[in-house]
Amino acid sequence: MPATISRDGDILLTKNHAQEGLSRAYVQALSSAARVWLSMKDEFDYGFDGQLDLIARVETDPTTGKQNLVKAGYTIDFQLKCSKDWKVAGDDVQWSMKSKAYNKLAGRGPGAVPAILILMCLPDNEDEWMEFSEDSLLLRKCCYFTTVTGPRIENENTTRQISFPRRNLLNVSTLTTILDDNRRRLEAAFSAFGE
Question: Where does the record place the DUF4365 domain (predicted)?
Fold first, then answer.
């Protein structure tokens, strides 16, 4: 994608990287509001973009008072996408995903670290993506999530239509539910293993 040139002749961030930055900001704000651990790579990446986990406990250094968070160890990987090319189809949001990116999610074994696909849906008009005021910062529109299961696609030069149930709106409640469900799944698996 060619670089955008401002009126002053400066080169601006590409639209794709701007979209990725907005989706990263959404997930950063959401994880902060949910008070969960988040790790995202600093550079722009087109594979797995980060991990989420619950916090097991907070340890406080008695001499300094500094708090250290301890992860629970129930990590979930995520791949983050952002697009204005999505559509509502009944109870779903549909979006076409490149097979190469799809294949990074597909085919994970049952014992693998779980992975979710997060899609930030932007309005068509770039001027509507964000609003800034003294009272608020508004980021439009929202993120949905889903899991990708099944075999990898042999031809990586194609696309795959992905359906995101609209009930899978990514918010504080759904994020903590995803992480809690993963914790329960792993605890049950290891409990059965130990018997």
Answer: 21-179
pLDDT in tens, 115-160: 999 999 999 998 999 899 999 888 889 999 999 988 888 888 999 9
Q: Write down the H helix ranges in 35-161.
A: 99-105
Beta strands 67-71; 92-98: pairing state: unpaired
Tokens 């099944």 -> residue: 150
Closest by CA position to 139, among listed 24, 37, 45: 24
pTM of the model: 0.86
Q: Which residues pair with 161 in a beta bridge?
A: 96
Determine the Cα–Cα distance for residues 32 and 51; give it in Å rounded to an integer.
Answer: 14
**Domain span at residue 13?**
4-194
Q: What CATH number did the domain enclosing 12 receive? A: 3.40.1350.10
Structural domain count of the chain: 1
